[in-house]
Write a structure and sequence with these properties.
The chain is of the alpha/beta class.
Length: 206
């Protein structure tokens, strides 16, 4: 069975209220990092649900409506680029996930975390899974919410700062984005602790 045909698991531990957690925007040069936490019903099924990076933009937004309507509870939170610069992107990603979990009612009994690094959330155990958004429905659902809410944020910023083309690249380090930085300099939403320009691009633009 191929990865694209692989069915996501409904749960990690039976008879447990599990919340899937994931983030979006960790590798971007600009904008906040977003995170989401989702508790799905035990009988939730959707054959299209997968890691948000593996499905189309249109399908992500269709799934977001389904997740928001059918989840037991969900939460989305973000950490600004200024705070990312202060505490680093890993800590900011974890903090955003903590804030998303805090919004959940009922309170989960176990957190399923995408990735291999996490700080324990008070009084709730967690398990980390590398590429967990391709293994568990709840993590995949969280990846959909985190990605679409962050994309919405960057699309709004694009109207104010069109030179960087955030409507398309969402703040990721594309050549066009970096060309915009060369042309207009860094915006108030750029992460100053990140390498905004690479040496090769500087040579290319001379």
């Amino acid at each position: 069975m191929s990865q694209s045909q692989k069915r996501l698991l409904s749960f990690y531990k039976a008879d447990t209220i599990e919340a899937g957690c994931d983030e979006a925007g960790r590798g971007c040069l600009a904008g906040p990092v977003f995170a989401a936490a989702v508790i799905l019903p035990p009988d939730f099924k959707n054959s299209c649900l997968n890691d948000s990076k593996q499905i189309s933009d249109k399908k992500r937004y269709e799934l977001r409506i389904i997740i928001e309507n059918e989840a037991i509870t969900w939460g989305v939170a973000s950490i600004s680029n200024q705070e990312i610069d202060k505490i680093n992107i890993l800590q900011a990603s974890i903090k955003a996930m903590h804030l998303a979990v805090k919004k959940l009612l009922p309170k989960p009994e176990l957190l399923l975390i995408d990735g291999n690094r996490f700080k324990p959330y008070p009084a709730i155990p967690h398990v980390c899974f590398v590429k967990g958004d391709g293994r568990f429905m709840a993590i995949a659902a969280a990846s959909i919410l985190a990605k679409t809410y962050r994309d919405d944020f960057m699309k709004k910023l694009h109207k104010k700062y069109p030179v960087y083309n955030w409507g398309q690249n969402k703040g990721y380090p594309t050549k066009e984005h970096r060309s915009g930085i060369m042309e207009a300099g860094a915006s108030p939403y750029h992460r100053k602790s990140f390498q905004l320009l690479d040496r090769q691009l500087k040579i290319d633009l001379k």
